[in-house]
Amino acid sequence: MPGHLTLALLTGFACSAALAADIQVTKTEDGNDGVCNADCSLREAIQQANATVGEDRILLPAGSYRLSLAPLREGFVIVEEDANLNGDLDIRYNDLVIVGTGQDRTIIDAENNSRLFDVHVATRLRLERLTLRNGRTSDFGGAIRNRGSLVLDQVALENNEMFGEMGAGGAIANFNRLDISASRFSDNSTYGATGYGQGGAIYNHGCGSATAASPATSAMTRPIADAAARSTTRGSPMSPAAPFSATRAVSTVPERPFSTPRAAPSS
After folding, report:
1. Sign of the four-CA dihedral 255, 213, 137, 67
2. Cα separation of 147 and 84, whole Å?
3. Which SS3 state, helix, strand or coil, does residue 254 take?
4. Stretch (H or E) spanning 125
């Protein structure tokens, strides 16, 4: 079944399970010593939520939360791990809500080290009232790779990038269920070998389902460069002989957000 986009006004989000706990993040610095106590980072809070049963809610005060624990690299390729030790924040085994204090007040910044969130299979993540910025991946989803269920409510996604030869989704790569409301995408981009690099803002896999509620907005305001705006082909920095496509038009719901898949994500 091809992926589809349905425009509808979402009146609310019904939680299927009672909240197990509220987890309060107390510092903006990145780190993970295995304990979320009075000194609790966002990464530690997610680690605690992953280890508990039921739906948890993480409360993020105003501030800039920088994901400074960079993943390993092999040349241009980002080496991922799924234990939440470094790089992106792995959401696993549980349902999780992360609530900020507003798009201009609560910011999660990957510092171009990695994507921000990896939502695993049979997992649900809801993000509210925050900004995701400066995510970067060589795979799928510059800010978020979703293989579970993802809800965005009043979320801004800015300056995220997919730069790998065979990836897609400058901001989000969706492989399952995605719901978006009152959110904004700007200056997200993809680069990829010819036939890849689709979805400057959102890439929706053929079996994925996405719903966008008005007013999801897009800043179609500036071509990054003439060649990039035309999605031209050039040599890949990872493989100089390979044709390389640059797609940097800022696109989002409902402006050409989805593309036909060419490859499945790595597990």
Report:
1. positive
2. 16
3. coil
4. strand 124-133
Inter-residue contact 197 to 189 (CB < 8 Å): no
Cα-based angle 131, 59, 182 (whole degrees, multiple of 5): 40
At which residue do the structure tokens 């106590």 appear? 37
Beta-carbon count within 10 A of 52 CB: 14
φ, ψ (nearest 5 deg) of residue 249: -65, 140
Handedness of CA 47, 31, 15, 212 (dihedral sign): negative
Residue 245: CA count within 13 A, CB half-sphere = 17
Cβ proximity of 124 and 152 under 8 Å: no
Q: Where are the domains of the chain?
A: 4-68+85-225+233-247
Q: Could you tell me the sign of the dihedral formed by the alpha carbons of 191, 76, 157, 224, in that order? A: negative
pTM for the full predicted model: 0.76
Contact 216, 179 (CB under 8 A): no
pLDDT tens for 83-128 read 888 899 999 988 999 999 999 999 999 999 999 999 999 999 999 9
